[in-house]
Design a protein that fits this description.
The structure is a homodimer of 543-residue chains.
Chain A lengths: L1 H18 L7 H10 L5 E5 L3 E7 L7 E6 L2 H4 L9 E22 L6 E8 L23 E6 L5 E3 L4 E12 L5 E13 L14 H17 L14 E2 H13 L4 H13 L10 E3 L5 E2 L6 H18 L2 H19 L29 H22 L8 H16 E2 L4 E2 L9 H9 L5 H12 L10 H13 L3 H17 L35 H7 L1 H4 L2
Antiparallel strand pairs in A: 1-9, 2-3, 2-4, 4-7, 4-8, 4-9, 5-6, 5-8, 10-11, 11-12, 13-14
Helix pairs in contact in A: 2-6, 4-14, 5-6, 5-7, 5-15, 6-7, 7-8, 7-9, 8-9, 9-10, 9-11, 11-12, 11-13, 13-14
């Protein structure tokens, strides 16, 4: 009998380890702290600045450019008839709520009115049929709304939050019995970013100043009640975006309440085993995207918290969230196999994101990111006086670095390879530098070699380019870093970007991680980091 | 100088006559009385009773029938995926507001959901593409709504009032990231009719009882805060519908507040010269359809008021609205020319409706309706002790009757003709009987001859058939009247009508006065009058 009791106790214990909620004692308070830090949204009421039309143009980005046409002044008094199409340009990217008012021009409304609105960040969204929808994400992200109004005359606000610069108006239903016009329209643009960011000096080259301006707009638009990844599509808090947004914010708006809120929100909504979810939603009530866990993102949370502490000195928050940091390392370590490397198959396979570049092998980048996170997490431990708790971390990092060097470094070629096919990618070198596996000199050589190889896998998103620029700076490649920023983000500016795009390959304007370019986010958080570079390293970028 | 003063005074006088508001002293009070009489709307919450599918069937009305399919019980738990289509049958015609609720089946909502709803009175509305729209009335009357929901879980109510029996659900946007179901849907059906109407005795033939039931449903659905013509399309108070609805109501629901409200509302919104508008709107604030004046409708207002007085004994209202009666006659008399007939060209041409039958010549029907209105208005005068005010009316009626008989009666053929082409129509005979120009015997002969002529213009709507049945009863053609009711309204019942249709020609299922059958109203006030006949003349119809 006693023996069975032991077995039962053992089972309960295992059960507890497997199923206990490691943050049970903290969650409620964390969520409360997250709610208390909700920043105020600043409102700006905007109206269209011109009428435009779409012009097919093979030289223009994605094949379309917008051309101003006269008539905005008379538009508000022009009878709208079925089949009429107008495109209104608000002159800037906006995130918020769209309102319009229809007014009677003559007689009495004797039928409902039906209007289709299409809200577009980019011309392509106005010139590509949405249906049949070929994309891989939810069709309903596309911003077309059909409104039927039994009674005109009152201002109507479309319920869903929108992101756009352009509004296309298509009249689907009128009546021979009366005439009406769209007598007003406006957009209530929202952001939790303060209005002001210091402009760059006029001595800074115009292209840098332009990149800075677009970066500021990008970040401002993504700063809502969380750091959103894209205000048009996804509209939620992802850890990877949080990290880059928060370091860009620290160099610009310095709206640290938002960072604090996001750190607490992610913690409060982590899985019961302690692992952070890759993203969380605020509405209808805060909840994670269950089952979406991304190993690289989980670890970058630790780095984001470290940077937050360094920027703000807010030890209370950092100490509060310290258990999250410890758990992300603990859980990642369950994937270390006998070779001392992160083995994605060792435990439940987790998503390793790193970039949207199709075919990227993430094996080697993951080793580097893990070491980078160990280093940064230990730096945080030291700042918080927690080294004793995690005294094994430096040794863990050393063991991985040693193993990585032995197993993944092509010494002869002078660069790192990844996976069974020995893939050569920019990101493998990047993470080996950021982790300290490669020295600055070795990193410079590795990067120069790889970047000279046409077959090397280059980044597919501004997210991945961010780490590349950071790496170049660390390797003393200041001129190259500056040129890369100008070439990559600058070419978006030259192609007409109001805000920086989620996915961008200068060689492929129609690149989409989701099989349909209009569903791409064209104002994307992770693309805003030129602000960070330009403002943090003025000696490199502002000259 | 003095001479100019006279001229000026003369001009001012003419101006006063042309422009003075003849109801200025009454309007405010009339409108207030109309508002005070707004009836309460009774609510019924309905849910679908079965899933159905559309089956093309050349024998079925308009080519489609609905077939029940199993699965309603599991529908509420079935994951909805893009491309899915379901048709829900609520089992009866409803007017009101549709609500639904989407619920998460698994994971977290990571994209908005997009659903198209099509609300249909009839199967044809679910099986005919609405666009490109070929109809002659506003496209937006068609009841398709596209809803994008960023957050599911709450009950959503579509803002516009709808009329339907069937709801088609088409899933336009889902997401690979989660599953959802439509966990609830309901319809808040509204009517100002009391719930109860006495059923017919079981000894009454089933077809008559079925016609009665469908008539009751038709009237109930059209009884909102005014007598509407069609709750799906038009949704407003027309005088012609008011007249027929109010006499049907008097025989059934006896909700006389509604009649009173409508009589006052039409009066309060009449034109400044005293002429009633053919129809008025309640929202956003009460107003007429400016410029839409229909001579036959204006005159039928007088008849409706007379019947209201006879049914209720409400002398106060009848006396209050007496000036409107006088003005309708006065204004119509301005069209009498030297031949003593109503000449549509004598003054501003007004719409003469009578029926939607294409090509109907309204000249002769108009003479008859004018005499009918004169007779009924004089009957009203007598009930109110106002004969002295209008003592010329009987003589006017006699003069028209004499002229009509001399000029429009084909004595040899024994029927009336109309217009330059001497058109032979049912309605010419009808209005000559109702006016008393033809005696019962003459009317019977005329009708029998005309109805035996294949080329005679027969009615195109239940509205016109109403007057035909009434005429037959007056002519002692009880058996024919009964048979016509069974043949005409009964054939709608046999073709599956839940409510009686706006336009119906047994020979042309796709008849539409607006060039597109789906825009027809399939629950139309003026078609409800079998209730009136069956209940008022039980000896003819209930045996």
């Amino acid at each position: 009998m006693r023996r069975y009791c032991f077995i039962l106790a053992g089972l309960l214990c295992v059960n507890y380890l497997l199923w206990a909620d490691v943050y049970q004692a903290y969650r409620e308070r964390w969520l409360q702290k997250a709610e208390e830090a909700i920043p105020q949204l600043h409102e700006t009421r905007l109206r269209p600045v011109r009428l435009v039309r779409s012009v097919a143009d093979s030289v223009a980005y994605q094949g379309w450019r917008m051309e101003a046409i006269p008539g905005l002044d008379v538009f508000y008094h022009t009878a709208l008839k079925r089949g009429d199409v107008y495109i209104l340009d608000f002159g800037r990217h906006m995130t918020g709520y769209y309102s319009f008012k229809l007014s009677l021009l003559d007689r009495a409304q004797d039928a409902p009115v039906r209007i289709k609105f299409t809200f577009a960040e980019m011309p392509i969204e106005l010139n590509t049929p949405f249906d049949p929808y070929p994309g891989g994400l939810g069709r309903a992200w596309l911003q077309d709304e059909v409104i039927t109004l039994p009674y005109i005359g009152e201002e109507v606000t479309i319920g869903r939050r929108l992101s756009c610069r352009y509004v296309k108006v298509e009249v689907l239903g009128d009546s021979p019995g009366f005439s009406f016009a769209m007598s007003d329209m406006s957009f209530r643009a929202l952001s939790s970013a303060p209005a002001y960011v210091e402009e760059l000096s006029e001595t800074t080259p115009e292209i840098i100043r332009a990149i800075h301006r677009v970066g500021v707009e990008t970040l401002r638009e993504c700063m809502q009640t969380v750091y959103e990844d894209g205000p048009k599509r996804d509209q939620r808090l992802w850890i990877g975006d949080l990290y880059l947004e928060s370091i860009a914010n620290a160099e610009s708006f310095r709206q640290f309440d938002l960072t604090k809120r996001c750190l607490y929100l992610l913690a409060a909504l982590a899985a019961e085993d302690g692992q952070l979810h890759a993203n969380v939603f605020e509405k209808p009530t805060p909840h994670p995207q269950y089952g979406t866990v991304c190993q690289d993102y989980s670890l970058l949370y630790n780095v984001a918290l470290l940077e937050y502490l360094k920027d703000t000195g807010d030890r209370e928050t950092a100490l509060d969230l310290w258990p999250v940091v410890v758990n992300q390392i603990r859980l990642a370590m369950t994937y270390i196999d006998d070779t001392q490397l992160y083995n994605p198959q060792k435990n439940t396979p987790l998503w390793l994101f790193f970039d949207w570049r199709a075919g990227l092998d993430t094996y080697t980048p993951m080793q580097g990111l893990l070491v980078f996170a160990l280093n940064k997490s230990y730096e945080l431990a030291k700042l918080l006086g927690k080294e004793a708790e995690v005294k094994e971390w430096p040794a863990l990092a050393r063991r991985i670095k040693k193993a990585v060097r032995e197993r993944l470094y092509d010494k002869k070629a002078g660069y790192f390879v990844s996976g069974a096919d020995r893939q050569v990618s920019y990101l493998s070198q990047v993470w080996m530098v950021l982790s300290g596996v490669l020295s600055a000199d070795e990193g410079k050589k590795a990067l120069r070699r790889v970047m000279a190889m046409p077959e090397a896998v280059y980044p597919g998103t501004p997210y991945a380019y961010h780490y590349l620029v950071e790496t170049m700076i660390q390797c003393g490649m200041e001129a190259e870093a500056r040129q890369l920023l100008i070439d990559y983000w600058g070419s978006m500016v030259r192609k007409g970007a109001d805000t920086f795009w989620e996915a961008y390959d200068p060689k492929d304007d129609l690149l989409s991680p989701y099989g349909f370019a209009p569903i791409n986010s064209y104002c994307h958080a992770w693309s805003c980091t030129p602000i960070y570079f330009i403002r943090r390293y003025p000696e490199i970028f502002q000259r």
